[in-house]
Amino acid sequence: MGGNENPFGDLLQDYVLECLPLAEQVADTFVELERRWRADDPADAVLASLAGRLHTIKGNSAMMGLAPMREVAHALEDACGLLGRRPDRRGDAAAALLVTGGGLLTDLVRHAAPDLDPAAADRYVERVRQWLASDAAPAAETQPERRQADRRGGGAAAAGAEKAASVVRVDFRRLDAMLEVLGEGLIQHSALAEAYREVARRGGASEEMDRLDQAVIALQKTLKRLESTLMETRLLPIATVFGRFPRMVRDTAEAVGKRVRLVQAGGETPLDKAVLDRLSEPLVHLVTNAIAHGLEPADVRRGAGKPEEGTVRLEAAPQAGRVVIRVSDDGRGLDERAIRKKAEALGPEGRSDESIPLRSLIFLPGLSTADRVSTLAGRGVGLDVVAGAIHALGGTIDVETAVGQGTAFTLSLPVTLAIVRSLIVEIDQERYALPLAHVAETVRAEPEAIREINRRGVAQWRGDLIHVADGGAVLGTGRSRSTPRRFYVVMAAGGKRRGLLVDRLVGHQDVVVKGLDPELGRPDVVSGTTILGDGRVACILDAVRILEGGRRAG
Amino acid sequence: MPVDNARTRDAVLGFADAMDARAVAEAAPAAGPELHLLTFALDREEFGIPVTQVREVIRVSEITRVPQAPSHVRGVANLRGRILAVVELRSRLGLPPAELTPRARVVVVEVRGRVLGLLVDAVSQVTKVPQASVVPAPEEVLSGDSDYVTGVARWQSRLIILLDLEKALAPTE
To answer: Which residues of A fall within a CB distance of 8 Å from B66?
Structure first.
């Protein structure tokens, strides 16, 4: 879409914003219909729910002069109308026709442009026309049904219009800009509070000073409220990502020849748009894995006394300021022996020590390109890639599995990336923020507790030996020190753990994340910057990269 | 790179000396178009940048080091809630490092939509210089990494080395 230089730009954007969710719902409903019909459920109510949405898409497309979308929506309307009247025509062929149309309509709406190539739409409309004509419907029944559908459509449209009146669409960049301004406000408040304390220290106690004090405190509360309201504004229901799964599950199941039921829950759970945008791909990986490798073929399932139709669950729920997402299947479970054998072949990192939990091995790079995976799916879907993406979001991933019963991946994600709860540490007089998501523990560094093996610091932590690196060495502020550092922070992600020696633990703080200027290059160990309460700038450390950087961060 | 820059610097200084030697009392009142420059000191030389690129001049406050940043980056500072990357212009131009004195300032510039801080030894003043007083930089200066010198203004017994910030600040990959 052309943006401002195209007079249709904004209108087109509005069109997509309004019609894309509708088209996606329609596409999902078709997938649902197919499943229900296979289970001999006529699903009349589901079918009837489509009319209003298709009608709205048709109307809006016509208004924008987008003929291909209008025609496809119209054809689908006709097909649904016929199916409503003629239960005998429902079935796999009809469902396949609808599912194809739903996907096509969604694609067309998503890439809405005035110069759209109508060829695919034309072909599809022709297909529907032939299908409709292949068995002419009794004309007499058409009229009342049609009117009923229109009434229903009108009702939905009216309800939509009512809701739309109280909703304003805002470009997400504006919300980012607002957050930026709010951040400045918070810092200015800190400066004001600091100035007040300085004056108070010089003995400026008076009635005016008390009033000033109260005003400064009130201002802080107001800013905090503004912050939480603004954060809420940035959140979207996770359903915006879950929405693509019904069709994706159907297509994948079809491709591997399995029957799969998708159960979704918690779609209303709110999550920052920036997190949602980067969550879709890892979830697709996990769901694809569940269908292709987790679920057994129908005959195996039957043999094991399970229902032939496999179940994949996609669930989300808020939990203590974070969002937990679970992707589970009722399939065969992970083959622990095969994984351990494969891990062993990867070398020392994946040594098949029974004490190393399976969950640390499975996310090792290269592991899930194992034979089992690549032969079944035709491509290795690396769990290390999934874990990397989740870690980059400040999240964690864990797995539980039981042979014959299934596998569940549990993701824990921050609700937002804009504000990160962090541990503030001091190393060589500089302060740094360490996201708490990757901090397992802080430990007092007793001199005798850290030994040197192969010129690397090593300490015993929760029964394991972990590498403890010097903070100054990792961050380039110096290595040899006369006074030893007093603490180490144990960082953990994806089964990797490492200690980082620091001079001081300053405290916990919610930091507003700011980017890195391009002039700063691309530092490995820093993911962003922030301004601390005292107005000083601190770098936000990238725990995942520090955990990875074995050589560089010796 | 430091070697190249040292050579460049010698070339600039040599050129400046030559200009000095030839200096004639031709400080006529300005006629024709003028350049509006902010000038600042770096290692005994005077440099100038167009005032249109300057947003403000601030005192050096707390500057936070950024691990693994390029060597010419001093760090980041808080400019009223905004994160400002501060470039050590001495290092960027290949001049020897020096202790910060109380006269040191950060010149906040806007280049290609980016706001950056330049750490300089001291800020001299805002000066108007006739366009006609600018001579192109000598060719040897324009070689290699130093094409950020656009010319030298000779005006009222001052020599001002004109910088093209877009070039001086291009990220060195």
So the answer is: 516, 520, 523, 526, 529, 539
Count of domains observed in chain A: 4
Delineate the domains of chain B, giving CATH numbers in brackets: 2-168 (2.40.50.180)
| pLDDT at residue A488, as a whole number | 92
Tell me which residues of chain B have a C-beta less than 8 Å from any C-beta of chain A: 62, 64-70, 73, 75-78, 80-83, 85, 87, 114, 116, 169, 171
Better pLDDT: B43 or B26: B43
pLDDT digits (tens, 9 = 90+) for B53-101: 999 999 888 899 999 998 889 999 988 778 899 999 888 888 888 888 8
The residue range of the domain holding A202 is: 172-233
Higher-pLDDT residue of A156, A546: A546
Share of chain A above pLDDT 90, in %: 21
Contacts of A294 (CB under 8 A, 6+ apart): A310, A312, A329, A331, A332, A406, A407
Least CB–CB distance from B81: residue in A184, A475, A519 = A184
Alpha-carbon distance A348 to A352, whole Å? 9
Element (H, E) at A385: helix A383-392
For position A530, which CATH number holds?
A: 2.40.50.180
Termini Cα distance of chain A:
48
A533 interfaces chain B, CB cutoff of 8 Å: no
Indicate which CATH number applies to the domain containing A13.
1.20.120.160
Domain identity same for A264 and A194: no
